[in-house]
Amino acid sequence: MKVRTPRTVLEAEAIQDELRSLLDLTDPGPRDPSRVAGVDVAYEGDRLAAAVAVLDGTTLEVVEEVTVGGRVTFDYVPGLLAFREIPALLEALDRLTVTPELIVCDGYGLAHPRRFGLACHLGVLTGLPTIGVGKTTFVGTYPDPAPERGSWTDLTLDGDVVGRVLRTQRGVKPVFVSVGHRVDLDTACHNVLNLTPRYRLPETTRVSDRLSRRALIENCRSVLIGSDQRKKMG
């Protein structure tokens, strides 16, 4: 599906409303997928670097990594972050030689003011199962889960369950899991626990975060070198 870049907030919200009707919230999704992708985007001024890291679902070893550099094409607006990140992420995903069975976003799916966060948006555009795993809560209320690993409570918004507050390691802060597309909440949380054997955040998120930051530094360095060379030539 072709990505659409809005010119205004109203256009962006209209696109979200249109694409939200295409969400598949009935498919249980892949349980114990063999290939899982993490996606992340790093920023420096108006420059960005998008990263996709595909991990083996059993060993959590990196199978493939792709990065894409670019410039921001949409201002930051809470609830519309996807429009800043989607173009570069789609390009990075297109460059993969393997197809992931699940995409894990560092952000939100249904746990979003318009029930259409980055995980939903990316899932609809790619057709792939997606989930969001947030470090903090964006919307909704919840009671704290018990301290044991695997404990969880419902994240609710306006009386609806939009995600789960999941404890991935005993005694550490929980993460906020919400479905994006073609995955149910039980399967999402099962897979998140498999992706967090040692740390609070999924390995997919940890690897893609490091990858995007490193790519951004290298991209900015190459821009500076190119600028210096042009000055010398001038």
Summarize the structure.
The chain has 234 residues and is α+β, with helices and mostly antiparallel strands. The chain has helices spanning 9-20, 82-94, 118-126, 185-194, 203-233; strands at 35-44, 47-56, 62-71, 102-105, 130-134, 152-157, 160-166, 175-181.
Binned strand content: 25-35%
Q: List the helices and strands in order.
A: HEEEHEHEEEEHH
Report the uncertain regions: 223-233
Helix content: 25-40%
Q: Cα distance, first to last residue?
A: 44 Å
What this model shows, in words?
By secondary structure, the protein is α+β, with helices and mostly antiparallel strands. 32% of the residues lie in helices and 25% in strands. It contains five helices and eight strands. The chain has helices at 9-20, 82-94, 118-126, 185-194, 203-233; strands spanning 35-44, 47-56, 62-71, 102-105, 130-134, 152-157, 160-166, 175-181. Strands 3-2-1-4-5-8-7-6 form an eight-stranded mixed sheet, sandwiched between helices. A hairpin with an 8-residue loop joins strand 7 (160-166) and strand 8. Helix 2 runs parallel beside helix 3 (118-126). The longest helix has 31 residues, at 203-233. The termini are far apart. The model is unreliable at 223-233 (pLDDT under 50).
Topology:
Blueprint lengths: L8 H12 L14 E10 L2 E10 L5 E10 L10 H13 L7 E4 L12 H9 L3 E5 L17 E6 L2 E7 L8 E7 L3 H10 L8 H31 L1
Parallel strand pairs: 1-4, 4-5
Antiparallel strand pairs: 1-2, 2-3, 5-8, 6-7, 7-8
Helix pairs in contact: 2-3
